[in-house]
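tmp note - Ribonuclease P protein component
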Amino acid sequence: MDRLRQRADFLAVANGARANSAAFVLQGRCRDDDGPIRIGFTVTKKNGTATERNRIRRRLRELVKRLDVISMRPHSDYVLVGRRAALTCDFATMLDDLRSALHRLERQPSRTASRHPN
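out:
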């Protein structure tokens, strides 16, 4: 598993399918290459101070470490967008929410960005 680091990759995943949870939003996108599963983490400034945002990001990273990779689609990119509730949410509940969000993404077709032809 690799990390997403470039803004263009995050924007591409944002146009894919998404599943909401109390503590995070999971976005996913299938790629056309044979690369590994890549995961990115985002926590915006509206979620609190830098210390709180880093704590949310650390909790999200730990969720992914404890998750079995089998539940993720190969050749896919995922982005976890943290919410403020991730600070107080029970960790086991968050792990169950992540598993169910991955399952919902599998059933959901990818969204395509609607662009004007101009």
